[in-house]
Design goal:
The complex is a heterodimer. Chain A has helices at 8-31, 37-58, 69-92, 98-121, 129-153, 163-185, 190-212, 220-241, 245-268, 273-278, 300-308, 319-323, 327-339, 358-365, 376-379, 401-404, 455-468; strands spanning 312-317, 343-348, 373-375, 388-392, 423-428, 448-452. By secondary structure, chain A is α/β, with parallel strands linked by helices. Chain A has 2 domains: 8-278, no CATH class; 300-468, TPP-binding domain (Rossmann fold). A 6-stranded parallel beta sheet of chain A has the order 3-2-1-4-5-6. In chain A, α4 packs parallel to α8, α8 runs antiparallel to α9 (245-268) and α13 runs parallel beside α17 (455-468). The longest helix of chain A has 25 residues, at 129-153. Chain B has 2 domains: 1-31; 34-109. The N and C termini of chain B lie far apart (59 Å). Chain B is flat, with a radius of gyration of 20 Å. The longest helix of chain B is centred in the C-terminal third of the chain and has 35 residues, at 72-106. Chain B is built from 5 helices and no strands. The chains are: A alpha/beta, B mainly alpha. At the A-B interface, α1, α2, α3, α4 and α5 of A face α1, α2, α3, α4 and α5 of B.
Amino acid sequence: MDTLNITNGDIILEFIYLVSALFFVVGLKLLSSPDSARRGNLWAASGMIMAMIATMILHRNGEGGGIKGANLAIILGAIAFGGVIGAVVARRIKMTAMPQLVSFFNATGGAASALVALIEFSNPENQSALVTLLGLTIGSIAFSGSMIAYGKLNGNIKDIFAKWMTYVNLLILAGVLFLLFFILFGGAPDGTQQTLVYILLAVALVYGVSFVMPIGGADMPVVISLLNSLTGIAAAMGGFIYQNQAMILGGIFVGAAGMILTLLMCKAMNRSLINVIIGAFGGGGAGVDREKGVVKEVSVTDLAVMLNYSSKVVIVPGYGLAVAQAQHICSELDELLEANGVEVKYAIHPVAGRMPGHMNVLLAEADVPYDKLIEMDEINPDMPKTDVVVVIGANDVVNPAALDDPSSPIYGMPIIKVHEAKNVVVMKRGMGKGYAAIENYLFYADNTRMFFGSAKDSLQKLVTEIKAL
Amino acid sequence: MESILQFFYANKEAIFIIALTIFLGLEVISNVPSVLHTPLMSGANAISGVIIIGGIILVGHADLENLGQGSNLLNLVLGIFALIFGTLNVIGGFVVTDRMLEMFKKKKK
């Protein structure tokens, strides 16, 4: 940086960057507690807006020139365009589709980082090829990976897995690293540099695709969080290019926070990160031959009576509830039972839904009081005292195989121990397997009754029946 | 190898900041209840849109008078795309996070 002629504007700009960076930190800190979370989001957003406006007004290039009117008009136009689309999509999207939306926004962030790095690589003023190329590579991987994650969550892309894919992935990754080193230290002739950078970009994009492709099932949130972390790191690399502290700090902070969040999620599923990335999930399963037993159905009348005359009912919501948009009718059932003197609680598995905390958001949308949502570890000891557990559209998180079948792919994952309750009612569309495609012996247990149908219809019938009692 | 060492020396302040920021990030997040994982991920995701500052700098100093020269025009177009993508990330991210959190607040009275 040239220290020759620093103006007041430069000093103010740096100061504002410092304040923005602090806003990011305070914002994320507030976001980690339920009471202050919304304020935290506003803090972080204000920090961002502050940094953006200050840059537009005060930033000067190496020769000391500020941003001209025409350029400013283009910037504001682009921001208005992106901003309106972003805000409208974010407002209109259904809450059930949120995980893929987060993934999509993450992809755009990665793309922005990759583009900035791509342009800056050919800028002769840019001194640091290393961080530029890292930003390009990481940003591209985050972009294509997040787009695949988006497609998978949205149901456009199916899970594909074969053992050889792991090796191909390692090979592509090796290719990415080799290209990086070769461009930096290989002494390629000047003319070919730019071409090599385009090849690096292409290979990194391919790696993003091949990296996320074999991962599926319950591991999806972990991957999204990991990609989120990567986008942060890519943004920080961009910060290095401009020697911009707000970008460096913001990016690294998100990178670190995303990484710890990733590890926390892995812990919730009792798996290591490496295991998530390399060992694909799902399929097969049922290694141990067990007595399958008989599936027993329950009629809507019996179920209505059973629930209405219980004293303790626990509802275990899963993604099926969310897909059927049944959270509102579920909340109605809950109110009806409470009015008849039944204690109703919700058991929330850490990875219920398609993202940790996703189920809480969906139930909050349906006005279910916060204190009724009980986390897994807290509610498990109460299970034997529970009269009826109603499992709505959840499967893997209540599969006892996780506790006692070492051959099961989900063995070791903590579950909600619904099988310990006096009665279990499972609402399900049919006998299909869950997201992880594993057989669930809960459905054949003596104390389990099945109630087939889409969650919304089933709950609607049930509510009508209870009202008629 | 030498260029890595040089990079380290030239950016020693920033690298100090990074090392400390990593710990700060771990510290701030490690006690989060799982209820908030999704909004937190979404909020952090929006912050990673800071790359938009880079987009503003890029487009802001683009030479509009000599667009015909070299890759000026291509760079401007790519820069505009970077800005649009960055804004999508930032605005969309903060708005959707706010929407999630709004729901937590409503029934708390």
